[in-house]
Design brief:
Blueprint: E1 6-11, H1 17-29, E2 33-38, H2 42-45, H3 48-55, H4 73-80, E3 83-89, H5 91-98, H6 105-111, E4 117-121, H7 125-129, H8 131-142, E5 146-147, E6 151-154, E7 160-164, H9 168-179, E8 189-194, E9 199-200, E10 206-207, H10 214-225, E11 229-234, E12 247-250, H11 254-264, E13 270-273, E14 280-282, E15 301-303, H12 307-313, E16 319-326, H13 330-341, E17 345-350, E18 362-363, E19 365-369, E20 374-376, E21 380-381, H14 382-393
Parallel strand pairs: 1-2, 1-3, 3-4, 4-5, 8-11, 8-13, 11-12, 13-16, 16-17
Antiparallel strand pairs: 6-7, 9-10, 14-15, 17-19, 18-21, 19-20
The protein binds ligand PMT.
Ligand PMT is lined by residues 195, 211-215, 254, 273-277, 279, 304, 306-308, 322-325, 337, 349, 351, 357-359.
C-alpha cells in the first residue's frame, strides 16, 4: 500500500502514453495520490481528461494556464512529490533532463524536485540505441536518477527490438521499491566519519585535503533510510547533513575526530571511516599569524594518531570498514591497511580515476574483505555505492 504517498507522474509524448493510464489506475488501487503532468505532445495521444478522471486530480500541462490548486504549480508539485516518475520517457525529455533544459511544465518541474526520479524510457530501437541518448541515460544514472529499462519486442513502428515501455506492473513495482525502502538495518547502530580534517599552522592557515564529505554523507543518508541509528562525525564541509541522524558531531582536526570517535564507539556496532584524515599535523601551532620574511620557511610535521588503527585494536565483534584513497599499488596498499588496521572490509578508490574519489557525485571502487576477496564495481553514484557497502555489512 502506498497510502499517503504522493506520486508525480510525468507523461511525455509517444504511443505508449495509453499505458500510463494503467500506471495511474494501479497506483490509485494501492492508495497513492497521483498528480499527472503531460507534455503537449503526450496530450495529442491521450486526452488530459482521461488522466484527470483516473487520478482524480487536475492534470497540468501548460506553464501559463490559470493556476487551479497551487500558487506556483511547478514548484508546489516538485516539493509535494515523494517520487517523480516519467513514463513513458521520450529521447527528448531524457535529453532535456540530462542537460538541465527547462522549457515546459514537465522539464521545469522535474528540475525543481528533490524527490527520487524514476524514468521509464520508451522509443524506437534505433533512437534508444543512439549514442547520444545512451550517453544522456548514463549521465543521469551517474547522478542517481533511477531507470526502469525498456523491454524488447515488437514496437508500434513495426521494428522489433529494445525500446518498448516496461509493463505498468513492473513500473509500479519499481515505484514501490523506491517508496517502501527496506528497513533491513533497523536495530543497527552505525558510526560514520566523513569529510576532511584541518590541521592548524597558525590562526589563519591550515593543512587539509580535497574531501567534500559527499561519500560519508551518502552512506549516512542511505543507512538512515534503511532504518539504522546513525552517528555522523564530520570534518568541515559545505553540504547539508542528512535528516534523521541520531547524533551529529562537527570536528576540525584529526585529534578532535579521534576523541569524538572514541567517545561514541561503545554505543555503535558498525563503524565506517570514510573521512580523509590528515596523517600529519604541524608540530608547533603558532597562536599568532606567522609573518613572512625573505627566507624560506619549513614546517615540522608530527604524526596524528591513526584513528582507524586505534579502533581496530579494540574492535571486539564490531564491524569495521575503512576506505583507502590510493594513487598507486592499489591492491597491495589496501590489503596492507586491512591487516594493519584489523578491518572487515576496505573500500578502495583509485583517486586518479575520473569520476572517483574526492568531490565527485560518483565513485569507482573495489571492495576487499579480510580474506582478501576482491569485488570490482563500475562507476556509480555515491548513493548507489552506499547501498552496496551497507548490503555487504548486512551479510
Ligand atoms: O569526501 P568526498 O569528496 O566524497 O571524497 C571521498 C573520499 C575520497 C574522501 C573517500 O572515498 C575516501 O577514500 N576516504 C578515505 C580517505 C583516506 O584518508 O584514505 P587513507 O588511505 O589515507 O586512509 C585509510 C583509512 O584510514 C581511511 O578509512 C581513513 O579514514 C583512516 N585514517 C587515516 C589516517 C588517520 N590518521 N586516521 C584514520 O582513521
Amino acid at each position: 500500500m502506498l497510502s499517503g504517498k504522493n506520486v508525480v507522474l510525468g507523461v511525455s509524448g509517444g504511443i505508449a502514453v495509453y499505458k500510463a493510464c494503467d500506471i495511474v489506475s494501479r497506483l490509485k488501487k494501492v492508495n497513492a495520490n497521483v498528480n499527472v503532468i503531460m507534455t503537449k505532445s503526450a496530450s495529442e495521444f491521450v486526452s488530459p481528461l482521461t488522466f484527470q478522471s483516473l487520478s482524480q486530480n487536475h492534470v497540468v500541462s501548460d506553464m501559463f494556464e490559470e493556476p487551479k490548486t497551487w500558487d506556483i504549480e511547478h514548484i508546489a508539485l516538485a516539493q509535494k512529490a515523494d517520487i517523480f516518475v516519467i513514463a513513458p520517457a521520450t529521447a527528448n525529455i531524457i535529453g532535456k533532463m540530462a542537460n538541465g533544459i527547462a522549457d515546459d511544465m514537465l522539464s521545469t518541474t522535474v528540475i525543481a524536485t528533490k524527490a527520487p526520479v524514476l524514468i521509464a524510457p520508451a522509443m524506437n530501437t534505433n533512437m534508444y540505441q543512439n549514442k547520444i541518448v545512451q550517453m544522456n541515460i548514463e549521465k543521469l544514472k551517474n547522478l542517481d536518477y533511477k531507470f526502469v529499462a525498456p523491454e524488447s519486442g515488437r514496437l508500434a513502428c513495426g521494428d522489433i527490438g529494445e525500446g518498448k515501455l516496461a509493463t505498468p506492473e513492473t513500473i509500479v513495482e519499481a515505484i514501490k521499491a523506491v517508496l517502501i525502502k527496506n528497513k533491513d538495518l533497523e536495530g543497527q547502530r552505525i558510526l560514520i566519519t566523513a569529510g576532511p580534517t584541518r590541521e592548524a599552522i597558525d590562526p589563519v592557515r591550515f593543512i587539509t585535503n580535497h574531501s567534500t564529505g559527499k561519500m560519508g554523507y551518502a552512506i549516512a543518508k542511505t543507512a538512515i533510510e534503511r532504518g539504522a541509528d546513525v552517528t555522523l562525525i564530520s570534518g568541515p564541509v559545505n553540504i547539508q547533513k542528512p535528516a534523521g541522524l541520531k547524533k551529529f558531531i562537527a570536528v576540525q582536526s584529526a585529534a578532535e575526530m579521534f576523541h569524538a570517535v572514541m567517545e561514541n564507539i561503545d554505543e555503535n556496532n558498525i563503524i565506517i571511516k570514510s573521512a580523509a584524515v590528515a596523517d600529519y599535523k604541524p608540530k608547533h601551532q603558532s597562536d599568532k599569524k606567522i609573518k613572512k620574511t625573505d627566507d624560506d620557511l619549513s614546517i615540522e610535521l608530527e604524526r596524528n594518531k591513526d584513528i582507524l588503527k586505534e579502533i581496530g585494536k579494540a574492535k571486539g565483534d564490531k564491524t569495521l570498514i575503512g576506505f583507502a584513497a590510493e594513487t598507486n599499488d592499489l591492491i597491495k596498499n589496501a590489503k596492507a591497511k586491512i591487516t594493519k588496521k584489523n578491518l572487515d572490509f576496505i573500500v578502495l578508490n583509485d583517486i586518479t580515476q575520473k569520476g572517483a574519489g574526492f568531490g565527485t557525485d560518483s565513485n569507482i571502487v573495489k571492495i576487499i574483505n579480510k580474506n582478501g576477496d576482491i569485488k570490482e564495481y563500475p562507476k556509480m553514484s555515491k548513493l548507489h555505492l552506499s547501498d552496496i557497502i551497507l548490503d555487504m555489512i548486512n551479510g
